[in-house]
Structures are given as structure tokens and as C-alpha cells.
Amino acid sequence: MRIGWRLSTTLSLFAVTAAILHVAPPVKGAMSPVSLYALPTTPGMWSGVEGAPEDALPIDPNEKFSVRRTYRNGDRVAWVSVALFGDQDGEARRASINKIYPLRNVSIIEPVSLIVSLNGPVTSPVALRAVVIHQGSQQLLVAYWHQIGNQVYGNDYRFRFALMREVIFARRGDSLLVRIATPASPEFRRADDLTAMAELASSIHGALTQEIGK
Amino acid sequence: MNPIVARDEAVNGVVVSNKGVQDFVARENAVDSAVPQVGSTLSWITLGVALAAALALYAPVLAGMPKEWSEFPSLSHGFAVPLISAYLLWRQRQLLAQAPFEGSSMGVPVILVALGMLVIGSMAGEPFFARLSLPLVLFGTILFLGGPHIVRHSWVGIAYLVFMIPLPYLTLKALTYQSRIFDAGVTATALRWLGVPVLRDGVMLHLSNMSLEVADDCSSIPAIAALLALGAAYSQMQPRPTWIRAVLTLAAVPLGLASNIFRITVTAAGVHYIGPIAVQNVVHHFGGTSVFLLTVVLLVIIDTLLLRVGKRTLS
Q1: How do the domains of chain A map onto residue ranges?
Q2: The architecture CATH gives domain A27-212
Q3: On chain A, which terminus has fewer CB atoms closer than 10 Å, C or N?
Q4: Which of B50, B127, B181 lies at the smallest CB-CB distance from A10?
């Protein structure tokens, strides 16, 4: 009977697990797509118009909603996309890492350091993920972050763990992916690009956070 | 063992006490009950039911794997893994049949950890986490119902299932990109040694007559993933000392890398000397297969050399 008892224990554990998985409430979205319109049209010295080229910032078919803008500041141009991803308890509804920056005819993806002091309720420097994409003679600087509520994640793995925690315990699965792209200058002027990008990132984050925090 | 009825007997009018015999039998029976029993048919059926229930529980997280195996070349070896795993268990059938069946409670925490991983992975939509717990739950179930002796003869077959689980895409993508950069760099160096003029720009190899991109499919990662599984299977199927098995399994990684770079170098040199037809032919399209075959040959050579070294050391 000893083995029978062990079998019953094992099957009971399996049954309880199946029940937990079965009765788990569905994942909901808490963020309103309207909050994406908080993306300012004139952040600081920049002025923006609707739309951004897909060559610079690919459109992810998984995004639920997005606002895309082109900003200019003198002779400098930057493209911004703020996309909402929802119900991310499945791989198919998450931001694809193949759609964050262009990958076609790319010879090098060069990581660069971009530490931004973000405005918002809590001022804290955050290391954002930034890369220079080499496409033949052209170079594109792309920086991005994921945002769950007001919390910014510059690291993909940290974001995935935070999303896991959010999905399991709060059964909420929405997040923002904010991307900024700008044509990259030659390496000796890279610092200027990064400064301009940091300034734009800070303004965008401040506006979004204010709206989401309402 | 035949039952002995303890009684006093009269031999030549002298009563001989059977108490000593009684004590001996009692001791023997005690020893018999302490020795674990070889698994009866019922025990095996019980274990089979538990394992089948585990597989049924995991059906939703396993269902998507064949699609991923067929979709990504780096994962196509996944189809072979369950079969090889079953074969590795089948090879142990005689040892398993003789092994004593004595379930261990140590299996319970293992099952609980695995089920926790399944719940977290399933609820959060992280299939890697959920799938990784399958070998663990099988291991825990066998330990709980069958015991350490059964585990000892079956763990290799169960652990082998890990090779069928696709890595998280985020990690796979990062590894693949690093591998492309590395492969392109080594290939460019090799081409220069061969006298082929080449300009390397990241993953691009600019030859005098054509530019080649070391694409995701050309990276060594698919080769390494498949060859690690192959190396592990090959080493387990041969009666070899543990150290040779370990070397053969680990050797698959550098061998896969080297043979893939060899393939890219030959292709690029072919483009330089023959023309673009070198990348537009059947041989290039079956590049993965050629790498695989080349590595199998190299594995056999290494195995033979290691066996000779082993024999010399023993003698």
C-alpha cells in the first residue's frame, strides 16, 4: 500500500497544480491607450509632427496601440515611437526583439552607454539600452526603454522579470516600449547625439509618467 | 522461503529445543524485509501512471515545441531528442528491472520545486521556465515512487530531455549575434591566410566580387546546440569511462564552432575563386547537414584517440 499512498500523493500534487493553472484569473490591462497621447509635441527645444519612418523604427505587429512622431531641433532630427503592449502573458503579445531597431542589411550593432536622469515623480539616473546600427555608410542611434506603470527598465532581462512578477501577482500584463532613433554622427561627435537623445528621453518620460500617474 | 513451524522435538528421548532455529528464522525474515524488493509489475505500472499523469499535466506547455523545432533550424534536433532519450532508458532496462524499488521522500521537494516552476512559467507566459521543469518533475516522481536506485539508472535519459527545450529567444538572439561577429572575424582571418582579399565590416564579408553576410542561420549557435545534443547522445551510447563521456560531450562545442567556420571559409573562398554560384548551389543550402556530418566524423576520431589514451594509461 506504501506505493499506492505515494502514487496518490503525486497525483494529488499534479491535480492541485492543474487546478491552480485552470482557475488563474485572466490577465488584464490597466493602462489606457489615451495615456500615449501624453507624448508632447514640443518637448523642450524640439517640435514634433505625426509619423515616423518604419526604416528607422520598425512597427511591431504585436503592439496594441502606438504613437509615432518625428521631432526636429535645428538640423537635428529624431524619431520617437511609444507603443503599448497588452495582455503579455503570452510570447505572441510581447514586443519582439527583432522589431526594436532595424536589422536589415545591418553589419554591426554597437552597444553604447546612455545614462539618463529621468524626470517624473522620482528623479533617478537610468542606464537605457542604446545601440548604433551600422547600415552600409549610414549609422542610426537607437535608444529604448520598457515601462511598466511609472517604472522604467533599460535592461531587457530586468523588464522580463518585472513583467513576470506583474503578470503572476497582479494579473496585469501591459507595458510601454519607448524608442528614440536619430541618425548617428561620426564617432567624435557621438557625445552630442547622446546628450540630445538624453534630453529628449527625459522630456518624453516626464510627460508620460505624469499622465500615467494621474 | 519455506515456513518452519517451531516446536520442540524428541530425538532419542531427548527433547531438543527449536528456539535457536526460531531465532535464526526471525533474524533472516527481518533481514529479508529490510532488503528492498525488486520492482513488481504493479510497482512499474504505478510509476508509469504517475509519469503519464506528469506528461498530461505538461501537455499544454509541450504542445508548442514541435512547431518551434520545425520553424528554427537551430532547434530542429529537438525532434530526435525524445527518441534518443527513450532509447537511453531502454538500454538500461535490465538494470532497471533488477534495481530495488524503494521510494524516497526526497522526491517530494523536487516535485514541488518543479511544479512551482511550471505554475510560474505557465502563468507568466515564460515557456522556457515551464518546460525546464519537465525533466525535474519526472526525476522527482521517479525518486519519490521508484527510489534512488531507479533514478541512478534512468537519470541520463531524463536529463537528456533538456536538449529539446528551446532557449529563451532573448538569450538565443544575443548569443547568435555574438557568434555571427566571432564567426565573421575568424573567417576573415582565415581567408587572408588563404590569400583571399576580404574587407570585414561586422557580420559582412566584402570580397572582390561579392559581399556576404554571416546571417543568423550561418552562425555557429544552431550547430553548437545540435552538436551538444549529438555529443551527449554519442558519449552515452558507447560503453566509455565517465571522463571520456564528459570530453566527448564538451568537445561538440568547439568542434561545431570549428566546422561551421570551416564551412563559411570554404564558401567565401569558393565565391572568390569560382564566383557567386558557390553560395547559390545545393551544397551551400545543405551547409548545416555538412557541418553535422563533419562533426560526427571528428567526434568518432576524438573518441578513438581518447580510447587509445585510456587503454595506454590502464596498461
Answers
A1: 27-212
A2: 3-Layer(aba) Sandwich (3.40)
A3: N
A4: B50
